[in-house]
Amino acid sequence: MEKEIKINFEVIPSYEQLSDIEKILFDKAKSVRENAYAPYSNFFVGCALLLENGEIITGSNQENAAYPSGLCAERTAIFWTSANYPNEKIKKIFVIGGPKDDLSSTPIPPCGGCRQSILEYEAKQKDVIEIYFTSPKGEIIKTKSVRDLLPFSFDGTFL
Ligand code: THU
């Protein structure tokens, strides 16, 4: 028997349609993207997290000559946040990625490993995290929870 899974997402056509706080997150993710250390892929990713206390935490991807030792922008920011603010909820994650000098407008979605990490922190904080992903110039995709990006997800309830 074939079945379907429905996921929900919103398309925000451009920067102008974002709310004030969303614009701030976009700007911060875009500027921290410049700090990416990505000499191997030349793919620059920036991430900005909004915490429940109103603080914004940022991160960029950090690569390594031993490739798996590098880390994505999202996990750089999320792990730092949990290490330093273990009890603070993450409300929103804004991700901007693309080749360093790319002017295309394709939204870059978080990789599978980052989705899995975001899922873990939704479980830890017992609350959803809104995810926005985009390119430096272009439309923005928004989901209300990482579960929309990770159907059939594996989490601690199975262990
Ligand atoms: N990258 C991220 O930072 N986040 C993602 O969600 C996708 C991939 C980084 C990892 C690597 O440094 C580069 O982009 C190319 O894969």
Break the fold down into its secondary structure elements and pairings.
Blueprint: E1 10-12, H1 20-33, E2 43-51, E3 56-60, H2 73-84, E4 90-99, H3 112-125, E5 130-134, E6 140-143
Parallel strand pairs: 4-5
Antiparallel strand pairs: 1-6, 2-3, 2-4, 5-6
The chain binds tetrahydrodeoxyuridine.
Residues 38, 41, 43, 45, 61, 63, 70, 72-74, 97, 110-111, 114 line the site of tetrahydrodeoxyuridine.
Low-confidence stretches: none
How many helices?
A: 3
- For the biggest β-sheet, the strand order reads 1-6-5-4-2-3
Strand segment count: 6
Radius of gyration: 15 Å
Broad structural category: alpha+beta
Order of helices and strands: EHEEHEHEE
Bound molecules: tetrahydrodeoxyuridine
**Chain-averaged pLDDT:** 96
Please bin the fraction of helical residues: 25-40%
Outline of the structure:
With 159 residues, this protein is an alpha+beta fold.
Structure description:
- The protein has 159 residues and is α+β, with helices and mostly antiparallel strands.
- 25% of the residues lie in helices and 23% in strands.
- The protein is built from 3 helices and 6 strands.
- The chain has helices at 20-33, 73-84, 112-125; strands at residues 10-12, 43-51, 56-60, 90-99, 130-134, 140-143.
- It has a 6-stranded mixed β-sheet with strand order 1-6-5-4-2-3.
- The mean pLDDT is 96.
List its traits.
single chain; 159 residues; alpha+beta; six-stranded mixed β-sheet
